[in-house]
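User: Show me an example of a complex going from sequences to structure tokens.

Assistant: Sure. Here are the input components:
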Amino acid sequence: MPKQKNTKQKILEAAIDLIAKNGYRGASVRKIAAEVGIRESAIYNHFKNKEEILKEIISQIFTTPFEFNDLEERAKKGKSFLHQFVVAYKLVSFDKKMEKLFRVMMIELFQNEDLRESFLEEFHQKDIQQISKALFIMMQDGLIRSADPMFMAQEFLSPLFYIRLRVSLLRIDEKSTAPIATQFEKHVDFFWESVAV
Amino acid sequence: MPKQKNTKQKILEAAIDLIAKNGYRGASVRKIAAEVGIRESAIYNHFKNKEEILKEIISQIFTTPFEFNDLEERAKKGKSFLHQFVVAYKLVSFDKKMEKLFRVMMIELFQNEDLRESFLEEFHQKDIQQISKALFIMMQDGLIRSADPMFMAQEFLSPLFYIRLRVSLLRIDEKSTAPIATQFEKHVDFFWESVAV
DNA sequence: GTCTATAGCACGATAGAC
DNA sequence: GTCTATCGTGCTATAGAC
């Protein structure tokens, strides 16, 4: 089934584009079909209804991108681990596909309960857990001062989220992100200075 | 014109409620009228069209709540100034009306260019400027370490924003915010420990 | 300033031919 | 798997009576 998958994929991509611009309600089946180059009725050969399209998109959002399998070893390096993490975070922030999915997430977050739960449990929690694990190791090794690792992880991550949000907003209007792009790295410096022993 | 204002106010309140739930597109003139208890056509005696309702709501969002006229004096007190700011920030985060407006802002942020500009220029910039001014004074007084005050202000504010976002999300589903509510104050402690000389 | 009535359009979805 | 045709509904907005 190579052709079917192709059309289904096209529908999903068109839907992501349109939802990222106008939200779920603004992305009508008509417009999605038009963008793909088929009729509305053809959509229903690939998805039961409009909501199924959204559900499949939402599942794409939370394919957690930041996972280090050798976390313990990396954490021993202290600041350079955090730096690596932020470089990966920055890359995702500027990746076109991921940026669109981020917009979809932010738009629908307040209107879709499933998405809210995934946000709090996956998006939020998974990063927190990974960073807090690393910070805990750094505390044991005496690299950073002692504190609640979970809370410290949130202090580390929330400025990154805010920068990402602003990057996303600026790029919608095609404004320059140059002054903001360096803030990712500046944050690591500031944070390390804040917690290093 | 006491009666006219009353109806207009009711329309605005109903619109805020509905937009906070379903977004601008989901808040139809029909539903707004039904909630107020009048017919759709009557709405147009108070607003030129649907968009005018949104514009008036947006203007309400950015009535900047955090302004200290005696900022210089307060800043000299160091941590307790930051604590005062956060208490005010927390109050706004839990205020019912402000919480609804926050939801409206977050929902429409990615779909409304005017709102985006106001967000970046008012919501973001105004707080940053005030906090950075205070931090600058603290640096001069040797209370905290030296750094770019604007950047440090952002490091102070962005975790607050993230906590506020999570509070807002939890409250939609009427989940407990008890564990999260204390994070506002914990953030001040953590931040002060990070920058205090 | 409210009502009834209605215009004109876009929406999601289905039936049935090819 | 795509098409044409169509249904029923909800939408914003206006006209005109009261």
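The lines above are the inputs; the final block is the predicted structure for all four components together. Chain A has eleven helices and no strands.
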